[in-house]
Structures are given as structure tokens and as C-alpha cells.
Automatic annotation (TrEMBL):
UniProt keyword annotation of Oxidoreductase present: yes
UniProt record similarity statement: Belongs to the aldehyde dehydrogenase family.
Name of the protein described by the UniProt record: Aldehyde dehydrogenase family protein
GO MF, one example: aldehyde dehydrogenase (NAD+) activity
Keyword presence, Oxidoreductase: yes
């Protein structure tokens, strides 16, 4: 593996400032330790939050379009360093280079969106029931925003939250996954460069990052100065965050587990469907919250789809994600590998026929697997759980209503899709009696969402929305203003109260 200190150096980060502790930074490509970092203590976390709070007090007075200028400069840094940052994402998370770069592109896209948004933080004007009165809404920044992100999208998830949070006038404290601290350090360095170019109205401490494990996250979530916590990760983590936020009545945006399904109907374009299935099920080695995990195939086309799918699976290039041509990189660690094997054993015990799923020796201690295709007799217990690995369960269905019923019968509700050329089926799938997910696609797989839409899902996925559309509103507080420009004081609801 290349020299990590110098790669960080090209991104403007001085790694020596962080080194010397007992937090090992490991690359899943070979399993080797890249460096040892110092974890932040609870006192460090409190100190960063206090700095962010001070920065917020100044930043909220900077006009929003000017705040957008900072994000525009940051996007310039990202454009200039896309290749190096994308490579670092690959080294730290194990996703293939194409996807590492794609993740940085996603950051650039949300920055562009946020720059435009900085001139569009509109409120409504509302007709007042009283003469000589006007009502309106004003949107104000919230304060310090805590962002907790996962290893699988180590930089993009932060940017969906942070780019919006900054243009909305907030400061941000970021707790990245302890599995991917280096990308966070690099992003902070690029942000610092943008801050320097921006000038003196960018307050010190506007963007903070924490290095460490659960204790750091807990200290962030429990701190009374953090107005909103946006957390991406497992349902177990999200439940703990939700409870901690509820205790102090703070806001939370939760983007948790997915168990995403696809229905392939008889009229589907199978060529397209196969490409979509393979990308969404094995891309990022099945470690996206939007990864395809459950496939419902209509019985009349099952026997023509399955052999083609098996063929595509058998030819997948599994290997070092830094090498061109590789489509499937390693799992993040041994724990992920064990969880995958356990799920496959469980599926087998429930009557499943497992194709693939075995370990492939590629490089050192990396956990590489052949993606698994599992033919199931029905939607059994194992299919109700999200296993963060490339396992695709396949079930036959007869009637669409039945497939939708099964599709919605799991606790998670993030992303979903249908492949059909029948407009009625497509519309039913997107209607109130169709998919119960936050994302419902037609003739596109469930993963790889664009930043322009609101991203998130229902049920155990947590209900939060990030990224595009009007998700920005979650990072602001709404004030309703009623203005009296008359010389009388009429009361609402026709109340007379003469004194
Ligand atoms: C995640 O896995 O946490 O829609 C996010 C997608 C990506 C984001 C995934 N844009 O697959």
C-alpha cells in the first residue's frame, strides 16, 4: 500500500497531528494497518462543540448567498482533488475506484445544489384573517449540527448534511465512522483551504470533526448545545441516537437500515433489469444502505431471468478495488464476512439454494467474497434482516399485489424498484397502495440515488430526509411572523377583549 501520509499530504492534511494513539486505521484491501490515530476524549468533544457554537453565532449573521460562496470554493477544492480523495475513499472503505470517484462527484453535486439553495431559502407569505395584517414565515439557522456517518459512504453522507447545514447558517461537528477517519481528516483539510480563501467572515471552528468510536458519538448526541443530530448507520445505532435526542427534545434526522427490494414483472426489459440487479446487489460489495437484497420475480419469467443472472454473477471480477476492471472489492472487515456467512447458513436452513458466497483469497488479510445469489422458497425469516454484504435473495411471485405485500412486509423502508413496461403496474407500485419506501423507482435499481431528490426512508429506516428537494428545512427553524400595519388591534378568532 502506498504511503498514506503523503497521500494525505497531497490533500493538504498533516497526518502527524493525529498520530500516536491506539485507534488503528486499517485498509480492507489487505487488512493492514495504515496508521495509528489518537481518539478524542469526551472533553475534546465538548471543546469542539463549544468552538462550533461560537462559530455559529457569527456565521448566522453572514448573508446566506455569501455563505453559499464558501461552499462554491469548497466544491472547487473537491474538483481539484477528486482523483486523490476518490483514491483515499477506496483505500479506506474498499469500494472500487469508480465508486470512490463517484462519491466525490456526489459531494460536488450537493455543493452545487447548496450554492443555488443559498439564494432560495424561501418562506411563504400567508393571507391574514385580520385587516391591516400580514403573515409570513422566516427561516433561521438552528445552531450546531452533529453529523454521524458510516464507513460505506465515508464522505458523501457528511456532505449531504454539511453543505446544506452551512448555507443554512449552521456550524457542523462531524463524527465519522471509526473505520474511516482518514477521509474525514482529508475532507476537513480541503474545507480549511476553502475557509482560508473565503476570508475573515468565515469563523474559526465552523466545521469540526471528531476521531474516535462510540464514546465520541455518545458525547456528541448528549451535548445540549447540539440542536440537531443527523445520523446514518445501523438501526441499533439510530435507536440509541433517537432515544438520546428525545430525552433532551433535540431534533434528529435518521437514515438507518435498508432491506431494499425489486419486483421484476413479466413485461420487464430483462436486459436492463439484469444490469440494474447486478449493480445494485453487488456494487460497493453489497454494503450500501440502498443495496438490492430481495428480488421478486414473476413466475412466468423466472426461468429465463435466473440463468442469465447466475451467468452474470459467475463472471463478476472480484478483486483489488484499486485495479481497473474490478467490480467487487472487499468487505469492510472480518465481522462483515462472519455476518454474511451466518446469514447464508440461516438462508440454507430455511430452504434456500445458495450460489456463491464463498471467500476468495486475493490480498493479505482482505475479506473478499463471491457475491451470493440465494433462491428462496418464500420470504423467510432471514430476509427480514439487513445483512451488510452482497447477498441477493430471490423469490417467485404470481400476482403483483402479492409481490407488493411481501415487498412491504419487512421492518425497513428505504428504497425499492419495479421493472415493468406496463404503465398500470408502474403507477400502482408508486401509489399509496404500492411500495411503502422513501424511494420507489421504475426501471432503475434501488441504489445510486441522485442528490436532487430527498433521500431517506420509512419505518425502521428512521423517517429522515437528507440531500435534495426541501430537505434543507430540517436544518433550519421556522418563525411565523404576523405584522400589524393598522391602527387597531383586532384579535384573531373574532375575540373581543376590551380593557
Ligand atoms: C448509503 O449507503 O448510506 O443511493 C447511501 C445511493 C447513494 C447513497 C447511499 N447515493 O446508493
Amino acid at each position: 500500500m502506498e504511503n498514506i501520509t503523503s497521500l494525505l499530504g497531497t490533500l493538504g492534511a498533516d497526518l502527524t497531528q493525529y498520530q500516536g494513539g491506539d485507534l488503528a486505521s486499517v485498509t480492507p484491501i489487505t487488512g493492514e494497518t495504515l496508521t495509528q490515530l489518537r481518539a478524542d476524549t469526551a472533553a475534546d468533544v465538548a471543546d469542539r462543540i463549544a468552538q462550533a457554537e461560537r462559530a455559529f453565532r457569527q456565521w448566522r449573521t453572514v448573508p446566506a448567498p455569501r455563505r453559499g460562496e464558501l461552499i462554491r470554493l469548497f466544491a472547487e477544492e473537491l474538483r481539484a482533488h477528486k482523483a486523490d480523495l476518490g483514491r483515499l475513499v477506496t483505500i479506506e472503505s474498499g469500494k472500487i475506484l469508480q465508486e470512490g470517484m463517484g462519491e466525490v462527484q456526489e459531494m460536488i453535486d450537493i455543493c452545487d445544489f447548496a450554492v443555488g439553495l443559498s439564494r432560495q431559502l424561501y418562506g411563504l407569505t400567508i393571507a391574514s384573517e385580520r385587516p391591516g395584517h400580514r403573515m409570513m414565515e422566516t427561516w433561521h439557522p438552528l445552531g450546531v449540527i452533529g453529523v454521524i456517518s458510516a464507513f460505506n459512504f465515508p464522505v458523501a453522507v457528511w456532505s449531504w448534511n454539511a453543505a446544506l447545514a452551512f448555507v443554512c447558517g449552521n456550524s457542523v461537528v462531524w463524527k465519522p465512522s471509526e473505520k474511516t477517519p482518514l477521509t474525514a481528516i482529508a475532507v476537513q483539510a480541503l474545507f480549511d483551504k476553502a475557509m482560508t480563501r473565503f476570508g475573515s467572515d468565515a469563523p474559526q471552528g465552523l466545521s469540526q470533526h471528531l476521531i474516535g468510536g462510540q464514546e465520541c458519538g455518545r458525547a456528541l448526541v448528549d451535548d445540549a448545545h447540539v440542536a440537531l443530530v443527523s445520523a446514518t448507520g445501523s438501526t441499533r445505532m439510530g435507536r440509541a441516537v433517537a432515544q438520546a435526542c428525545a430525552r433532551r427534545l433535540a431534533r434528529a434526522i435518521l437514515e438507518l437500515g435498508g432491506n431494499n427490494g425489486m419486483i421484476v414483472a413479466p413485461s420487464a426489459d430483462l436486459e436492463l433489469a439484469i444490469r440494474a440487479i447486478v449493480f445494485s446487489a453487488v456494487g460497493t460489495a453489497g454494503q450500501r444502505c440502498t443495496s438490492l437484497r430481495r428480488l421478486f420475480v414473476q413466475e412466468d419469467i423466472y426461468d429465463s431471468l435466473l440463468p442469465r443472472l447466475k451467468k452474470a454473477y459467475a463472471s463478476l471480477a472480484v478483486g483489488n478495488p484499486l485495479e481497473q476492471g474490478t467490480l467487487v472489492g472487499p468487505l469492510i472487515d472480518a465481522h462483515a464476512f462472519d455476518a454474511m456467512q451466518e446469514a447464508l447458513a440461516h438462508a440454507h436452513a430455511e430452504g434456500g439454494t445458495v450460489h456463491g458466497g464463498e471467500r476468495i483469497e486475493i490480498a493479505g488479510g482482505g475479506h473478499y467474497v463471491r457475491p451470493a445469489l440465494v433462491e428462496m422458497p418464500a420470504q423467510t425469516g432471514v430476509m427480514h434482516h439487513e445483512t451488510f454484504a452482497p447477498i441477493l435473495y430471490v423469490v417467485r411471485y404470481r400476482m403483483l399485489e402479492q409481490a407488493i405485500e411481501w415487498h412491504n412486509a419487512v421492518p425497513q423502508g428505504l428504497s425499492s424498484s419495479i421493472f415493468t413496461s406496463d404503465m398500470r403496474e408502474a403507477e400502482v407500485f408508486m401509489s399509496s397502495v404500492g411500495s411503502d419506501c422513501g424511494i420507489a423507482n421504475v426501471n432503475i435499481g434501488p441504489s445510486g440515488a441522485e442528490i436532487g431528490g430527498a433521500f431517506g426512508g420509512e419505518k425502521e429506516t428512521g423517517g429522515g430526509r437528507e440531500s435534495g428537494s426541501d430537505a434543507w428545512k430540517a436544518y433550519m427553524r421556522r418563525a411565523t411572523n404576523t405584522i400589524n400595519y393598522s391602527r387597531a388591534l383586532p384579535l384573531a378568532q373574532g375575540i373581543s377583549f376590551d380593557i
